[in-house]
Specification:
The chain has 10 helices and 8 strands.
Length: 249
């Protein structure tokens, strides 16, 4: 698996009505000239995926979902399968985000099952890991994230495109960010855990950083060792802000 460019993905979370499609259009139009060296993706709410596919048609911006069910179909009211995401136009999917782990009690094993479902449907999973503030202050950050890597990545994943996103829970939406030294330390530990779990075939899978990434700090973060891109929340909702991050890559 060869990773030669950064992967910058916007996670819109539960934001975005029809009017927000103009931001996706503006982003796509701005990147059509090929000026950005990074791969770029947007993961909007599921209600916008099909319409955003039309907006992004023939452009460079990739489309993704924010979660999927582990089963391809069934009596799971309100859930969306990986096959449904692919059918709607998604090529990426975020899995194991801390908001899912915390608010919905998702375990590493459940995340791994969703990853298996994603790759079976032809989606590229972005698997999130990250520690809480209490865990970092207790000196447990690296142990927590490496355990999440081992538990959330199913065997055989190295045969498929995937990414891991390091998102320290205490930095998401707070305006706080770890130092570049802390980010590099975490990413190095995650890389070692990925290789331990999946072998050298996964040595080039990108490790994204997420957590209060903004245009004014993106360059420094993306230059840190083993940072293969960014998973961006609030700053991805406006094309102008997101473009500032993308161009920092």
């Amino acid at each position: 698996m060869k990773q030669s460019v950064k992967l910058i993905v916007g996670n819109w979370k539960m934001h975005g009505l029809s009017a927000a499609l103009v931001e996706a259009q503006a982003l796509n139009d701005a990147l059509r000239d090929g000026a950005a060296s990074a791969r770029v993706g947007v993961c909007p709410p599921a209600t916008l995926i099909d319409r955003m596919r039309s907006v992004l048609a023939d452009g460079p911006v990739e489309l993704g979902g924010q979660d999927c069910h582990a089963s391809p179909s069934g009596a799971f009211t309100g859930s969306i399968s990986a096959e449904m995401l692919a059918d709607a136009g998604a090529g990426l999917v975020i899995l194991g985000h801390s908001e899912r782990r915390t608010a919905f009690g998702e375990t590493d094993a459940e995340v791994a099952s969703k990853v298996e479902a994603a790759i079976a449907a032809g989606l590229e999973p972005i698997v999130c890991v990250g520690e809480s503030l209490a865990q970092r202050e207790a000196g447990e950050a690296l142990a927590v994230v490496t355990a999440q890597v081992r538990g959330s990545l199913p065997m055989g994943l190295s045969d498929h495109p995937f990414a891991v996103a390091y998102e320290p829970v205490w930095a998401i939406g707070t305006g706080l960010t770890p130092t570049t030294t802390q980010i590099a330390e975490a990413h190095a530990a995650i890389r070692a855990a990925i290789i331990e779990r999946l072998g050298q075939g996964a040595s080039k899978a990108p490790i994204l950083y997420g957590g209060s990434v903004k245009p004014d700090n993106a360059g420094e973060i993306l230059a840190a060792p083993e940072v293969g891109g960014a998973l961006v929340g609030g700053a991805s909702l406006k094309a102008a802000d997101f473009l500032g991050i993308i161009r920092a890559a």
